[in-house]
């Protein structure tokens, strides 16, 4: 009996040995702590500016001031044509910046005595005589005439924009552009009128028409003139 009891005791030890070995491993695994996750945006303390010493920051500011001073001198030496080319490049790359600067330009000097030939119904001084009373409409802006805004050049009379607008319009109405002489400019004017209405007033819908200011009409006509100066006026029933 004593021998059997000793053998059974050894068997129980062998059977319990793997479990005994696994126990400490599991406990050690539980004791391991995972590293805490860092939230996004919390690494600013390791940024470059945080690593710069005060003397380094002073040097950066000095270099920036010297660069600004040299560029101002360079701009002062530019001629009118060079400045205009530079502004055109800025307008192409950052139109929003130019729009913002032009909208905050100082007011022009007060107008002089009225010109006898100036139209009574025009306040922007860019309108021209119109054939009907209905078309004698001004934009109403004494300082920033709508026809002189950069939006007109970028969105209303820009050839690439109007070509795309004509393509969309023709696809919607299942039409084709006419190939007659002078017809291209007429269709460009027609597309520019639609672009202007959508820009200033939104989509009006069928039966709702609005007169475009004379200054803007002639801005479009100067861009796409008729060889015989035969222009169609405002038609209430036309889109």
Keywords:
single chain, 239 residues, mainly alpha, 0% strand, extended
Give structural notes.
The termini are far apart. The protein is built from nine helices and no strands. It is mostly helical and 239 residues long. Helices cover 55% and strands 0% of the residues. It has a domain at 152-210. Helix 7 crosses helix 8. The chain is extended and about 95 Å long. Residues 97-234 form the P2X purinoreceptor 7 intracellular domain. This is P2X purinoreceptor 7 intracellular domain-containing protein. Residues 22-41 have a biased composition (Basic residues). It comes from Mugilogobius chulae (yellowstripe goby). Residues 20-44 are annotated as: Disordered.
Topology:
Blueprint (H helix, E strand, L loop, with lengths): L1 H30 L16 H4 L2 H23 L3 H14 L1 H9 L46 H7 L2 H15 L9 H19 L12 H10 L16
Helix pairs in contact: 4-5, 7-8
Protein name: P2X purinoreceptor 7 intracellular domain-containing protein
Pfam families: P2RX7_C
InterPro entries: P2RX7_C (IPR046815)
Global geometry: extended
SSE arrangement, N to C: HHHHHHHHH
Return Rg in Å: 38 Å
- Overall average pLDDT: 74
Q: Termini distance?
A: 113 Å
For the sheet with most strands, the description reads: none
Give the helix proportion (percent range). 40-55%
% residues in beta strands? under 5%
Point out poorly predicted stretches: 18-22, 41-46, 109-114
- Helix/strand class: mainly alpha
Number of helices: 9
Number of strands: 0
């Amino acid at each position: 009996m004593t021998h059997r009891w000793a053998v059974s005791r050894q068997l129980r030890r062998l059977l319990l040995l793997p479990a005994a070995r696994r126990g400490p491993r599991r406990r050690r695994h539980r004791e391991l702590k995972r590293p805490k996750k860092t939230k996004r945006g919390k690494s600013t303390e390791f940024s470059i500016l945080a690593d710069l010493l005060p003397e380094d920051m002073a040097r950066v500011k000095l270099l920036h001031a010297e660069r600004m001073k040299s560029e101002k001198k360079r701009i002062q030496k530019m001629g009118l044509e060079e400045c205009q080319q530079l502004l055109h490049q800025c307008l192409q790359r950052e139109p929003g910046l130019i729009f913002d600067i032009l909208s905050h330009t100082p007011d022009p000097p007060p107008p002089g005595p009225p010109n006898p030939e100036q139209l009574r119904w025009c306040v922007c001084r860019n309108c021209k005589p119109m054939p009907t009373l209905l078309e004698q409409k001004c934009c109403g802006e004494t300082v920033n005439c709508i026809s002189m805004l950069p939006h007109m050049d970028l969105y209303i009379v820009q050839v690439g924009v109007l070509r795309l607008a004509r393509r969309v319009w023709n696809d919607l109405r299942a039409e084709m552009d006419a190939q007659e002489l002078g017809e291209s400019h007429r269709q460009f004017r027609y597309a520019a009128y639609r672009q202007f209405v959508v820009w200033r007033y939104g989509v009006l819908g069928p039966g709702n028409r609005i007169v475009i200011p004379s200054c803007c009409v002639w801005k479009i006509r100067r861009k796409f003139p008729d060889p015989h100066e035969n222009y169609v006026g405002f038609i209430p029933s036309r889109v």
